[in-house]
Amino acid sequence: MSGDIVKRIETLRRELHRHEYLYYTLNQPEIPDEVFDRMMRELQQLEEEYPELINADSPTQRVGGQPSAEFPAVHHPVSLLSLSNVYSPEEFLDFDRRVREGLGEESYRYICELKFDGIAVDLRYEHGRFVRGATRGDGEVGDDITVNLRTIRSLPFQLSAELPAPVLHVRGEVYMEREEFKRLNVAREAEGASLFANPRNATGGALKILDPRVVAKRPLKLTCYALWFEGIAAAGWRQSRVLEWLQRAHLPSSRDWKLAENASTVEQIRQQWEAKRSELPFDIDGIVIKVDDFAQQQRLAATAKSPRWATAYKFKAHRIETLLNGITLQVGRTGAVTPVAELEPVLLAGSTIRRATLHNSDEIQRLDLRIGDVVYLEKGGDVIPKIIGVNVTKRSSESIPYVMPDHCPACGGELVRPEDEVVSRCVSLNCPVQLQKSIEHFASRTAMNIEGLGPKLIQQLIENNLISDFGDLYYLTYDQLSGLERMAQKSAENLLQGIAATKERPLERLIFALGIRHVGRGVARALARSLPSLSSLQAAKVEELQEIPDVGHIIAVSIRDFFSSSSNLDVIEKLRKAGLRMEESKSSDGFKPFDGKTFVLTGSLETFTREQAGEKILARGGSVASSVSSKTDFVVAGPGAGSKLDKARELGIPILDEAAFLQILEANQ
Ligand code: IVH
Is residue 115 within 6 Å of ligand 1 at its C-beta? Predict the structure, then answer.
């Protein structure tokens, strides 16, 4: 073996570690993913060829070893205390008073950090090398989860800064970002696995997995906030210096910390973060306030459970009580009726909440909601307020269970609930709300995109009996429009032009605009591609429809039902007579460089939205899928890409960054 190979391996390892740091810790990658992957593969190949050169700290060795039967116990050299809590300015002033008294006349300052809501871990470094990682456990004894922690890509195997002692203990928190957590739950739901309640539980669950290969696929992150070594207090350290040192050592740690000279500054900082917490991509449940100077920390010392020099100032939970004033029913375009809670307005996580969806009558029953109840309202990771229960201690003895009405609030028509569905529907043919919504849908940006036709104007047209379905739009006259209240001449002209301009819209848009139940944009596109005209769609049998990609039995039946309604056929006839294009244009099936190729888009792109990127792929004859599988040909990954990217790597599917994607788009104009 030549020295060149040893050198090459060393260079690759050094570079790969550096790029992991740039990507996972600083979020500032310098090279495209494929270049990184290529280097990683080269290193893997060299290590396969020269197994004697493999070492545990190689970036190829993040996932190592076999699943274990259990985690060995670790005795922490200094016990890992937890923190006392305060919940209000008064309680913090009490804490501050005790600090002041403890330190006599000395001046002191606080450092305020974010309190990450994750799982506490202790990392042991010997001579700068990561040798062991453990959970906090009961503070004295934890689990040795070294193999799991090694899979976290921002955890450095080797520290970069000058070492203040041969043995260092770094303490931090493993956590999951909310978006990644949601993606994980979506994937678990698809697999039929149980769901995690919140990112913290998902993190705890992941760290307990005995197979590091599985752990490596969980989107775990690390942030460090403490350092301990023999004699640290005597060496004149302070917490602010620790946080700076952590950065230099290339350990991931938050830059969101501030020094505070007194309690009122602490209060301001707490308020700022409490207001901004939902803007952070991860959960924090408060701020941690520490006396900055370690010598002073040592003098203040600790009680049996927690230090006297630090406390957690907890935020109010994103849960609040309010009054349920009523339940209203909302009618959708397809007649689906959704009950909505009308609430006494309350401020929750920075916004005023007046209403919350209750989804369906089963949900109301499950919660046993009664009008006049005091309900618990919570804002989950997804920002949508949700009623999670009733404070039954505050329930009036006169309250009665809620009964779902059996008539449509908009038209008085009967509501029906098919046995296998949870949703009630208004099946009336002339329900004004359904009419309004179906025309709004027809005119919407992603359907026919009629400029100048918004909900207010649609309502006006319906109320003046100028339209009774979207087919009538194409027969509106200038005189009719200019006769409407608040309608300027110019607007009437523009609207007529806007409507006329939609006659040439592609077939897939027209199919989508019809508002057939279960036919979204993707299905409409698939239908337009497989069938050359609206009349062939109309004539197609359920079995034929089911042959089309993305069309299952439910969709096929829904299409057939749509075309067997005489009122729907009347509307289509109006559209045909008005001269709408009802055939797929010839030009679009000419050039198809991406024919048969399936793309998956993940993460964010700069040049355009994912939707626009999808259009470009489709325009070239390719298709776009929502999840990565062995059928995927390319994955286009932007920043923030998560599990899909991991899956692609795992399956060895070519990954394109935005620049590479743009190149192949341009090459295939
Ligand atoms: S310092 C002795 N700093 O909160 C002080 N803890 O209940 C040790 N935590 O167990 C903790 N962010 O898991 C500290 N910036 C931060 C923190 C933090 C989150 C967690 C940690 C600890 C718990 C305290």
Answer: yes
Instruction: For residue 247, report the distance from its CA to the centre of ligand 1, in Å.
Output: 18
Domain 507-578: CATH class, spelled out: mainly alpha
Looking at residue 382, its pLDDT comes to 46
> Which residue has its alpha carbon closest to ligand 1 atom 6?
115
CA dihedral 121, 125, 129, 134 (to 10 degrees): -30
Place of tokens 């990392």: 123
Domain residue ranges of the chain, discontinuous segments joined by +: 3-61, 84-314, 319-416, 432-504, 507-578, 598-667
The Cα-based distances of 25 to 64, 120, 227, 242 in angstroms read 22, 18, 18, 17
With the most atoms of ligand 1 within 8 angstroms of its CB, the residue from 173, 207, 239, 256 to mutate is 173
Q: Whose CA is nearest to atom 9 of ligand 1?
A: 115
**Under CATH, which number does the domain 3-61 receive?**
1.10.287.610
Minimal CA–CA distance to 462: which of 488, 486, 482, 436? 436
Rounded mean pLDDT, 51-69: 88
Distance in Å from the first CA to the final CA of the chain? 48
Which residue among 78, 80, 83 is best mutated to probe the pocket of ligand 1, counting the most ligand atoms within 8 A of its Cβ? 83
**Residue 528 CA: distances (Å) to CA of 345, 525, 531:** 46, 5, 5
346-388 residue pLDDT tens: 887 667 889 999 989 999 998 899 999 999 898 754 457 889 8
According to CATH, what is the number of the domain 319-416? 2.40.50.140
Measured from the CB, is residue 113 less than 6 Å from ligand 1? yes
Yes or no: say if 7 and 1 are a contact pair by the CB < 8 Å rule. no
Lowest average pLDDT, out of 239-248, 347-356, 528-537, 557-566, goes to 347-356
Residue 390 β-bridge partners: 375
Calculate how far, in angstroms, residue 478's C-alpha sits from the geometric centre of ligand 1. Answer: 69
CA distances from 151 to 125, 146, 220 (A): 16, 9, 9
User: What are the phi and psi torsion angles at 660 (to 5°)?
Assistant: -65, -40
pLDDT at 589: 52
Q: What are phi and psi of 383, to 5 degrees?
A: 70, -5
Q: How many Cα atoms occupy the beta-carbon half-sphere of 133 within 13 Å?
A: 25
CATH number for the domain running over 432-504: 1.10.150.20
Report the C-alpha gap between 248 and 232 in whole angstroms.
18
For the chain, how many helices (H) and strands (E)? 24, 22
Packed helices 643-651 and 178-191: angle between N→C axes, nearest 10 degrees: 60
Structure letter (DSSP) for residue 445: T
pLDDT at 349: 65
Q: What is the whole-number distance in angstroms between the Cα of residue 115 and the centre of ligand 1? A: 6
Q: How far, CA to CA in Å, does 556 sit from each of 527, 531, 541, 665?
A: 11, 14, 8, 34
Given CA atoms 424, 428, 433, 438 in this order, what sign does their dihedral have? positive
Q: Is 557 in the pocket of ligand 1 (CB under 6 A)?
A: no
CATH number for the domain formed by residue range(s) 84-314: 3.30.470.30
Tell me if residue 115 is catalytic. Answer: yes
DSSP state of 134: E
Report pTM.
0.55
Q: Decide: 83 in ligand 1 pocket, CB within 6 A.
A: yes
- Reference 178, options 160, 204, 156, 200; nearest CA is 200
Between CA 52 and CA 608 the distance in angstroms is 47
Q: State whether residue 467 is helix, strand or coil.
A: coil
7, 115, 305, 437: the active-site residue: 115
